[in-house]
């Protein structure tokens, strides 16, 4: 069986400088643990980065915010997908890249849980990939809900994971992913 692909979403410099409160301060460390485990095994890795279509965005091409965080940056041999919308499958060739390699399972981590992670996980599940979302290797930011109530990043994160669990993905933590996949 083809090993699962690790999809690391939007670990860019601009995510470090956001002034909004966030959850999971250990997320980058946990992503680093997953990245190191995948590299040790030689398993497929996909680094996904958002490239904005809005001039002035920290994710506009050529801006420092669009660059990968150095400790999570891809090696030359690792696949990079650029996206312009939250869902990494839209207009990116990601599905084709996975299918050509016979990859049936994706493990997703990154930012933000309720945006790019959730959008990508929903599509992965809908496309028939066995999808895992690593809860402690994702994070998000405080957000107002539709009724105008301010929600903490932890509340937003928990609701997003609840939206995914069971229907689109299996939500796990880093230790369980490493244990289940025997790659610790």
Characterization of this structure:
The structure is a single chain. With 184 residues, the chain is α/β, with parallel strands linked by helices. It has a single domain (5-180), classed as Isochorismatase-like (Rossmann fold), CATH 3.40.50.850. 32% of the residues lie in helices and 22% in strands. It contains six helices and eight strands. β4 (105-111), α4 (113-126) and β5 (130-139) form a beta-alpha-beta unit. α4 runs parallel beside α5. It starts with a strand and ends with a helix. The mean pLDDT is 95. InterPro entries: Isochorismatase-like_dom, Isochorismatase-like_hydrls, Isochorismatase-like_sf. Residues 5-174 form the Isochorismatase-like domain.
């Amino acid at each position: 069986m083809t090993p699962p692909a690790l999809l690391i979403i939007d670990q860019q410099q601009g995510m470090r400088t956001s002034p909004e409160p966030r959850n999971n301060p250990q997320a980058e460390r946990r992503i680093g643990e997953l990245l190191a485990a995948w590299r040790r095994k030689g398993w497929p890795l996909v680094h996904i980065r958002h490239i904005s279509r809005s001039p002035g965005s920290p994710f506009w091409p050529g801006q420092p915010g669009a660059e990968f965080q150095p400790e999570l940056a891809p090696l030359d041999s690792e696949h990079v997908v650029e996206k312009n919308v939250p869902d990494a499958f839209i207009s990116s060739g990601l599905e084709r890249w996975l299918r050509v390699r016979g990859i049936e399972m994706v493990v997703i981590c990154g930012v933000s849980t309720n945006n790019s992670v959730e959008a990508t996980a929903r599509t992965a599940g809908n496309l028939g990939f066995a999808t895992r979302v690593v809860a402690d290797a994702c994070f998000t930011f405080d957000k107002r809900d539709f009724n105008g109530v301010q929600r903490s990043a932890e509340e937003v994160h928990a609701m997003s994971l609840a939206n995914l669990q069971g229907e689109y993905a299996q939500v796990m933590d880093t230790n369980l992913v490493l244990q289940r996949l025997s790659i610790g």
